[in-house]
Predict the structure.
Amino acid sequence: MRNLLTLFTGLMAVLAGAAVLTLSSCGGGSGNSSAPAAPVATAKPPAGQQWTDVYTKVGDGWVMQGNPNAPIKLVEYGSRTCPVCGIFAATGVEPLREKYIKTGQVSWEFHDFLVHPQDLGVALLGRCTSTEAFFPVLDQMYAQQTALNSKLTQETFDQYKNLGPLDQAKALVKFLGYDQLMMQAGVSQAQQDQCLTQPKMDVLMKQLEVASTDKKVGGTPTFFVNDKVVDGPSWAALEAALQQAGAH
């Protein structure tokens, strides 16, 4: 529990002095290249579906999009408010889905990793969905990222810095309008309240501890392809890693 407490204390320290919203930890990933793998086979999706229509719950708060038996497993550690993650969402997600997920070669999991003060509440709300709605809500959060976070100022953080973690999370998501985004996605205020709770936060923080200590994740987005970290946070770097793993 010591590491978990250290991580959470660090997150709250960011909240106390958060004049800079694009943190050094927003933008991560490093790794080494190796010989390319043999091309992997494509796979037909279930009748009447595309692989991009197939969603699988793979953990508490985690969802996989695509062929659950895909030979290439992509895991992204991302912050829903990180501008670098937003760039990937705008430039990389469509080709990822069209070229690699739809062919059944690649599956994609998104794991929340907190780097900005507002991330706690935003992540808890983003996980407050059905399995099928997880990625559509994620897409909407990135599509509206700039508009939703444009109201953030030092005065905002000063206003909420003395609140407890969950009260901070609730105040920030309401101030920024993420609660309205979730209601538009069909998640009622009562449902949101059930997700902004201590048990839900504890699960997320334990996952953050594992990502930080076991996976050595230190920034977002960080990509793993078949459990190997990708050298860089861009779509170009990720696509090169997918092709190195045999995607085509």
About this structure: The beta strands are 55-59, 62-65, 72-78, 106-112, 222-225, 228-229. The domain at 2-13+51-244 is CATH 3.40.30.10 (Glutaredoxin).
